[in-house]
Design goal:
Length: 87
Amino acid sequence: MSEFVELIRDRPTERGFMTFVVFRDEYGADVTVRESSADPLDRVWVFIEGGHLSENKGSAHLSVAQALSLRDALGRFIDLQTEKEAS
């Protein structure tokens, strides 16, 4: 597995919306998490672009509840990997 490098963290866009993180995965896809401009909805965008599949491009416009669900799922993944490494 290659070294993890964040490309951007907590930087506002030219329109003033926060880019929370941008990083590149091991297959070369850029993953971006950015505050949405959909006022008055509290939403966040998750973008995936590029990588080993040239047509790889997608996005999700998540509500707070959906973002919490994603965070919880990722937390369970992290916990499982930590348990595997400890055993």
